[in-house]
Structure formats: structure tokens, C-alpha cells
């Protein structure tokens, strides 16, 4: 069993997890197969360009999944994530040659001692650009 973090050991502002997730066009194809989302904006430059996008985009749910994974790992049990919400603020463009790297920093934003819930605020970026806004996970802790 994983070590479950204790609410009493946390302070607002603590960084509880950090991670980076490299993406390639191959990653997008594999995710499309797993999710069933075969929208060509996720693998064809011409289609993405024709609909006014800056290039092939990562699936939003893939980006959202990457963002919460460090919190799941820190919490030690995915069942401890009692709420998770994000706003998609900028698409993740996956370059055909260099791909993209989604970086995540998870920081304690609020502690509710009575409910035993920590709100974990996520900063999710590709390079210097924030790609998910108001990304927050509510985590039930001991």
C-alpha cells in the first residue's frame, strides 16, 4: 500500500508533485486508438490547418489525464481524487518532429481540515504557455 499523505502535514503553497510528459505524434495515434477519438485534427496537419488550427493538437482528455497523474501518484490511490476540474485555455500543438512536453506542477491551494480535503492547484504548461487554467483536484486525505 502506498504512503497516503496526511492533511495535517501540509501547508498552503507546498509543492506536492511535479512531472513532465513528452508527447509525439505516435502518442496521439495510440491515444486515438485507446479512446476511439479519431478526429483528424489529432493526426493530420492539412485537416488541422484547414479548420484554422496552428497544427495537429493533442486530445484534450489526454492533456487532462496527464495533468492529474502526478496528484494521483502523490495521493497513493486514485479513489482519493474526489473532484477534478480544468478549463482548456490553449491547445497543445504537437510538432511532427520535436513533439511537445506537458509539464505539471501540483501545489496545495487550500486545506479544509473539517472535511479532510486538500485542494491541489495544477499549473499545466507547454513551454511558457499555460494550457489548462483553473486546474484543480480535490483530494481526500487522512
Q: What is the fold's blueprint, element by element?
A:
Elements: E1 15-23, H1 25-35, H2 45-50, H3 60-75, E2 81-88, E3 100-112, E4 117-126, E5 129-140
Antiparallel strand pairs: 1-3, 2-5, 3-4, 4-5
Report on this structure.
The protein is α+β, with helices and mostly antiparallel strands and 142 residues long. The chain has a domain at 7-23 and 59-140: Hotdog Thioesterase (Thiol Ester Dehydrase, Chain A, Roll), CATH 3.10.129. Helix content is 23%, strand content 37%. The protein has helices spanning 25-35, 45-50, 60-75, and strands at residues 15-23, 81-88, 100-112, 117-126, 129-140. Strands 1-3-4-5-2 form a five-stranded antiparallel β-sheet. It starts with 14 loop residues before the first strand and ends with a strand. The model has no long low-confidence stretch (mean pLDDT 96).
* Element pattern in H and E: EHHHEEEE
Total DSSP E strands: 5
Strand order of the largest sheet: 1-3-4-5-2
Report mean pLDDT, rounded to a whole number.
Answer: 96
Rg, alpha carbons: 17 Å
In the CATH scheme, the class of the domain at 7-23 and 59-140 would be Alpha Beta
Task: Tell me the structural class.
Answer: alpha+beta
Helix content: 10-25%
What is this structure, in a nutshell?
By secondary structure, the protein is of the alpha+beta class. 23% of the residues lie in helices and 37% in strands.
Features:
alpha+beta, Thiol Ester Dehydrase, Chain A, 142 residues, 3 helices, single chain
